Amino acid sequence: MKKKVFIFIIVSLFLLFFLYLSVAPILPKGIRAFPVPNLDLNSPRDYYTLLSSSITFILGTFGLILGYFYYKDKLKFETVISELERKRKRLDDLIRELESFDDGVDDLLHHRFKNAEELKQIRIRISRSFETIEIMLELSTTLLGLTESDMQTIIKVNSFVDKNDILMHTPYHQIDESSLLSHKDDYVDLIQDARRVCYKNVC
């Protein structure tokens, strides 16, 4: 903003100065800001030719300066947009991994497994999904722009699941659907908070 005001002031002063030079030869000497050469019959054409050439040169110089500032601003703007797009893509990747994690936990909570092997595979899928999320969060400062509080909100989801004996450690033959569903509400609250964190940073 300050740069634009500065350029506006410089251009305005230049235009006023140009206007003064244009009319100075016909102004009485007493009100001239500074003296100009006395004109004989042949000098007005020379004076205005020189003035025109000077103005053209100065305008060309201003054009180059303004073009330089425009290029810098455009480059800065494109850099910011490009970084925002990269951040958006990384957050989209994080959201996809979080959804994959949630799908696994949802299968677990609703007892969508027929035997111990299927239960084991679901638990492995849940763990692997969050391993990827943790790697992404380690690079959060430079890649995702998440705050420490945001990261803790996401990590709480895995902490709840990983430390829950019924969900991740109880053997197949000791699990029943009602015991799994008893943890659903607490889990849903945590996963919804994690989603909000992600979507908040996408916008």
Task: Give a quick rundown of the structure.
This protein has 203 residues and is mainly alpha-helical.
Topology, pairings included?
Layout: H1 2-23, H2 43-109, H3 116-138, H4 140-143, H5 148-162, H6 165-168, H7 177-181, H8 184-202
Helix pairs in contact: 1-2, 2-3, 2-8, 3-5, 5-8
Counting helices, strands and paired strands, the structural category is: mainly alpha
In percent, how helical is the residue content?
over 70%
Low-pLDDT windows of residues? none
Report the order of strands and helices: HHHHHHHH
Residues in β-strands, percent: under 5%
The tally of helices reads 8
What is the mean pLDDT?
Answer: 79
User: For the report, how would you describe the main beta sheet?
Assistant: none
The count of strands amounts to 0
**What radius of gyration results from the CA coordinates?**
35 Å
- Calculate the terminal CA-CA distance, rounded to whole Å: 25 Å
Instruction: Give the count of structural domains.
Output: 2
From the spread of the alpha carbons, the general shape counts as rod-shaped
Overview of this structure, please?
The protein has 203 residues and is mainly α. The protein has 2 domains: 2-76, no CATH class; 82-202. The protein contains 8 helices and no strands. Helix 3 runs antiparallel to helix 5. It is rod-shaped and about 110 Å long. The two termini are 25 Å apart.
